[in-house]
Amino acid sequence: MSKQASWRSIGAVVLAAIAVIVAADYAFHYVTPRIWLRQVDDGVRDFAHSNPRILSISSSHGRSMDVVGKELARRTGESDVMVSVAMEAGKATHFQFVLDERLRPLIEERDATGRRVHDHLERALLVTEWWDSCSWEKGRPAVELPSHAWTLGHFVRDVEQQGITPINRNYLRWRWKRLLSDSVLVTDRGRGAILKDGMAELRGQPTGRTAEEEKAFTEWWLKYNEGGKRCLFSDDQAQAYAHIVDYLKSQGLDVTIVIFARRPGTLSEEAIQGTLAEYSARMREFADEHGVRLIDITTRSPLGNDDYMADYDHVNAQGNRKLAGWLLDGDLAFLAQHTTPTSTVGMTAR
């Protein structure tokens, strides 16, 4: 066989293999849904290319603010009224990193005349909940920032100092996932949903958790929220909250802290009276000390159990529509108005 024929055969095999993988990927879309959520890069990009009045910084729960922003735009007619930057698995220290490393240069950016590029910015929202105030346990690998908040510059600097490590490799993994985010095979890595949902389909069983798994999952959430009281306001997280609020105020922004809604079925009375009550009280004290508005919707939102995703943690599409309307009709109705130069002290919503 000639070399030319050999290379032609190899090329045919490679093309056939690629075709099989693409076909399998397409077929798996019918087995389990592709999940790809907005990340820090998306929010930062939107902020860089617009001039919003309102900036929302949050953990992953704050993706609900994307829907609030769209509804607010519909009501006000302002196409770029609000931008939300949500940090996956975010702690307060992560929000601080995103603010300092990704957003601050844009907030302070000026054009050739010395005028601020984002000169419409008037308000800032910090959307958070009790988990964000608890530090990770000591020794846990710090994988969230490389995965969800780093730029290429952060990666290069870390490699120069540390070499390639299991931590900074997460930057490369997530860049790969982002590049191929339309692929179920790629985005399912770490979830294992394809195999589980595929087996359920073959057996003629419904996908998702069994009744026993559902019960165990609910019990886990109840205990989890009850146990949160032990770690609230770790020193580094409390300092990060203060840094964020103080910086935003230093830029002349009207700041509002929103304690986000939790799924009712994950909250026992012990969690409500313990973890949630203490977090709310301490955050209210923090807000008063820093002269910012506090809105706590942890247990008083209109959301029911069916308004949350299967993770029991994040609001689903129907819930977000419900929540957006409720917030803009009530606690966040003021977002439709331009700010006034009056102090925000004493504007704690209860």
From TrEMBL:
Family annotation (InterPro entries): SGNH_hydro_sf (IPR036514)
Sample GO molecular function, one term: hydrolase activity, acting on ester bonds
Top-level taxon: Bacteria
SUPFAM superfamilies: SGNH hydrolase
Name by which UniProt lists this protein: Uncharacterized protein
